[in-house]
UDP-glucose 4-epimerase GalE
Amino acid sequence: MILVTGGAGYIGSHTNKALHNAGYDTVVVDNLCKGYETFAKWGNFEDYDFGSKDLREVFEKYDIDGVLHFAAFSSVAESVELPQKYFKNNYKNTLNLLQIMREFGVDKFILSSTAAVYGNPEKVPITEDQELKPINPYGHSKWITEKALEREAQKGDFNYVSLRYFNAAGCDFDCEIGELHDPETHLIPLVLDAAIGKRDSISIFGTDYNTPDGTCIRDYIHVNDLASAHIAAYEYLCEKNESNIFNLGNGQGYSVREIIDMCKKVTGRDFKVDIADRREGDPDILIADASKIEKELGWKPKYDLECIVSSAWKWHQKVNDI
Ligand code: UDP
């Protein structure tokens, strides 16, 4: 049985569905502070906080072999405003989970990490061995969590894979689950809000970055690609007695303006675009070198930007009832 923390959230629910389709038994643990119970319909569901001592009850009830840990806060902007909230939930509460895993002899762990651990990288595409210099509390909270896992693995009888996601986007092709944050802060769903008429315009946060068109460049990866990478990483942990760290991205960068153009193309709608100030904590360019996971696990992403935006648009139309 695999324990999926945060399995009622965006990336966790897509991975839980993929695990189920691949024949794995799962138990989702989610306190529903961000997730939706309807997103956790595959396998078992338990309403617990992963930072709570009561989480032991889940380990008593189910025979857990490994943990996929998605539950976390993930807004860069909010982390700048409320750093303690991020360090407490993303770091301290993960230590609680690790302690309970140790007590029950559960030795396989996959962390949802992030490209935000790199900060403003020295070179792009970014390889996993680049120095980690996070420039916002969100990235920092994941960086110290990776360090805690590294130390835990050094003690023995425990292995982990840290998956550093670049920009997760897109939705389930069956439209059963999708991206539904409240409040929404991510670029693609916000642009689609403008396309569908839920907001008057989309604001570009800064046009004076060190990029060809002045707007930030990111590497967008389909959430189903992230899901299949988790399964590959879990199988690796089952086969090999070692830990590892991998980037998960497409290796292709798109600027904010290019994302807006792709959304206009896919939706066939036009909308107003305005220029706003920079958002604090945003690096200029984040593009993955994802060749390590391809070389070591044989995994590579399948879906391109147009497919990402099309799947997100289909979901967006469904949830907005149009
Ligand atoms: N962004 C923007 N307008 C918005 C939301 C986001 O210009 O309304 C920019 C943001 O500053 C960043 C990029 O879009 O450069 C991607 O932001 P998002 O929040 O989707 O992901 P992040 O890279 O922060 O994880």
Summary: Residues 76, 167, 185-187, 190, 202-205, 216, 218, 256, 279, 282 surround uridine-5'-diphosphate (CB under 6 Å). The chain has two domains: 2-169+220-248, 187-217+251-319. Residues 187-217+251-319 form a domain with the UDP-galactose 4-epimerase; domain 1 fold (CATH 3.90.25.10).
